[in-house]
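In response to a reviewer's request, we include the raw inputs and outputs for one of the modeled complexes. The two entities were modeled together in a single run.
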Amino acid sequence: MSPEDREPEEVRGDVRAATDGDTYVEGDSLGEGPHTAQEARTGVGRDRGTKEIPMVPKDRPRTYYDRPVVKPPVWKPEIPWYLFTGGLGGASSVLAYAATLAGNRRLAKRAWFCAFSGIAVSPLLLISDLGRPERFLNMLRVFKITSPMSVGSWVLVANSLAVTPAAAGHLLGFPKGIGRRAEPAAALLGPALATYTGVLLSNTSIPAWSEARMELPLLFASGGAASAGGAAAIATPTRYAGPARRLAIAGAAGEIVNTELMKRRLGDLSSVYETGEAGGFDKASTALTIAGGAVMAAAGRRRAGAVVAGALLLAGALTKRWAVFKAGIASAEDPRQTVGPQRQRIAERRGGVPA
Amino acid sequence: MSPATVIETPVWPDSYGDEAKPRVGFFTDTSVCIGCKACEVACKEWNHVPEDPQGYTATSYDNSAQLGANRWRHVAFIEQVVEVNGVEDGAPDSWVQEAQRQQLVDQGVETHEDDRGFRWLMSSDVCKHCTDAACLDVCPTGSLFRTEFGTVVVQEDICNGCGYCIVACPFGVLDQRKDDGRVWKCTLCYDRLQDDMEPACAHACPTDSIQFGELDELLERAGERVEKLHDRGVSEARLYGHDTDDGVGGFGAFFLLLDEPETYGLPPDPVVTTRHLGENWRAAGVACLALAGAVIGSFLGGRG
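The model returned the following structure tokens for the whole complex.
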């Protein structure tokens, strides 16, 4: 390597200092704290003279040349789509069963159809995402509570077994007996399907996901409610769609509120929701969801209004899943998102003041 | 036989009973790493790890960048320029020192003319074979398993490439082989272990920077090494991954570093994802109830 190839160290140090400031405020976990006072070092290199030379390593890298510490997901677009279809299917099961119990047969029929659609598409998306799709049955070799993906696979299978006869009972008129007995099971498994995906993401080493562990399941439950309500409101005559509209509006409100709570919890880490692809999706989702909720509240009793509002809410829930997915990728790719909170933890353990 | 080491993982050695072997691992002493990459090469050759596109990273002499499906050992090269207080432009202490300084100047790095110092840090990174291994916890197929040696290995005939371990690992060790779809990582040369041979990387290391052995013995040796370095004035020497009270219950492959872990691309406070499992599932339970409540409320909230 010739001297010309080498990036001047001084320049690199300055650039790094500048970019640090973008993500973390001064004095935070990535600040000078742990790197200065305590660690006055000796010796440039042991083989270079015997004299002890204390140094203050101001400009050494705090990351390994800005390379990520953790790996971003290799998941394909199927996964954010699945987060959407799982939420739609799971929440629709609950809506459908409640409508069945309430004797609202028209709403029940359509909600069971939405539940079935969501649950029929979901496994296809998941299988297609696998590196070895032909081995999808290996998911059912074991059951592990420590693996949200294992739990989710079983929940999805059980859900399919419950929703399929239940939906068939309502849509085709048979098998009625089995269908009726499967309905409560579908209603119980539905929320699990709609929310475990939050744990799927939070149970990772990706900072923007794992630090949002309290909000992600609620966010996905909200998105599921907005989707299920919106889809049922589109498909059902307005006279019978009142509960669907109310569920859709509640879901939309939940999405907005939980997104905000999540960002507050994430603090500095929430920057991944402000910029890049995730930022675009998140802004779009907020706009779509607010618009959808407003139209549903104002014009939902007119069929056209319900259709527009339902479509907006479905799009809002879908883009929210994409925002969360892309935010995770951005978070994994930024080593400061990984190192920062960890340094913070270390500093807190040492008594609040970076040693 | 009963294992000599007492650092137990959640299932090992109990799950193996009499077949359990002593827990083995690596002690990577970066203070003697010369960056020769023999470990990378030996690993590739022994394990038939496919080639990976390499290139000049434009940051240091590192041309392989990171661990991944096709790189189970990775040698990090860190070029540090650090301010040196008290380095004078005047006469050097010795001709040897002067020659070394001159060599740096020849390479384009000025050390004594502007009061700046320069040092190389080199470190051979590898899978940590954690005591509490996130990859193993989250693997939905049971492909990842704990061997009788206490190491963590992917069974390639089971892995279906779901990719969950990739995002679970706090160190970014695992990755998917693109043309293959499955996930690959260091096996700590499981096949060699079964034949009482040391892993290829440790075998190839010319400076004993990579030391293989029974974990408790390695930890003892590492403690002595740090003390020795401190006595010699290398106060920045510290162990990384030796503490069984850390977020992953201690590493099976731990390190002696000369700077903060993040300088080497390592997380300073890794935590196994499943440490928050209870909280995570409880949050999902709350969300389930909220969803059910919202549906019930939407039927009570007005006329159908």
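As requested, we also summarize the result in words. The first helix of chain A runs from residue 9 to 23. Chain A has one domain: 78-334.
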